[in-house]
Fold:
Amino acid sequence: MPENKPFPKGFKWGTATSSYQIEGAPTAGGKGPSVWDTFSHIEGKIKNGDTGDRACDHYHLWRDDIELLKNLGVNAYRFSISWPRIFPTGKENEPNQMGLDFYSRLVDALLENQITPFITLNHWDIPQGLEDSGGWPERDIVHEFVKYSYHVSRHLGDRVKHWITHNEPWCVSYIGYIGGHKPPGLKNNWVKSLAAAHHLLLSHGMAIPEIRNNSKQSDVGITLNLNTAIPASGSTYDEDACRFYDGQFNRLYLNPLYKNEYPDDVFEYLKTKGLISELDLNFIKQGDLNIISTKTDFLGVNYYSRAVIRNEDIDEKNNLPRNVDMGPETDFGWEIYPPGLYDLLMKLKNEYEVQNIYITENGCSYGDGPNSEGKINDKRRIEYYHSHLTELKRAIEDGVPCNGYFAWSLMDNFEWAQGFSQRFGLIWVDFKTLERIPKDSYYWYKEFLLTGGSNEN
Structure:
């Protein structure tokens, strides 16, 4: 490739959002409540008592937002469908036409502006009605997801080629059932966590043929949040903790998708700790792994930081050494470590032989707001993007089959348990007036795209 064109021909450049984080309008057009509509209204769950009731009001302001996308110069946009806009309780036999029509208008407007839509079917906001019936730990939800995937792809598949079944199943299964910071807010329930992970993966595999039948020449994949995990020291305590972390964070999803197996060491570790028994794994039925490992057209990768793992069970008096120098952090407290993106991509290429990758999220949270002239100088965000795109370019030059990059996020939005306190956007949003102001990073990215990804900061 010529030096001034470091990215492959036809490379997709975009930004990403998700429905609950930007749409608002929780009952408009016949929408039912999602788990996030419910969870965000539970006292103490969200910072500052924020909710996504209005968020960025993208449901009403989507035309303005597409104009911002057009002016940015991206050729792709990743967004998610709100499942309860299509099936208000999740259990209806027929979809809600008003919900389908909203996304149909959005898709048409994107295509009119030469922006390729990438649709995520599940970005966590499942219908509350399905959660009330047990949610992801129950096998019945798999069939409801397949039904939902069928109807959305049938309605939009004539125009939409790129489909993502789930976004970050780890966040649903681990944070929802172990950490407790996302719906349904349970803690340390490994049995339900593992069942949720399995049913997310199973529903992914079962939905693939439905989408392909409805969307000819479709590309279907799944998005995982992945990282490279390293122990904080060379002690066996940290090394063991790191192996388990890598197992439950990365391999629990990659192995069944690409190797038709679960990482046994994860299950064995949990058994030795008394957190699960062999009988607890009876949700894995014969043939499930064959369905889960159905060949996908791409893997979506969300990368924000690496993981440096310390064994938290060891008493402080052991005074374990720390051999890893940590880099600077974003306002979210996440370490900035661009080489981790390169390391991760090379691992996916070499260990899992992934044939097609999209970076479906990459970004950082900084609170920079408008100055006296109304401009937003978010230089740190520009540096973050530039350093990570440099590592992505290096990985591609070393043979990684990556064909697209989506900056997270198009605009500041509702950042889950952090409410509106963390700002990831290329566009600053005044959450009182809903004014949108492009940040300096927006203009930097625009210039980057104009030069084909060859401008040096």
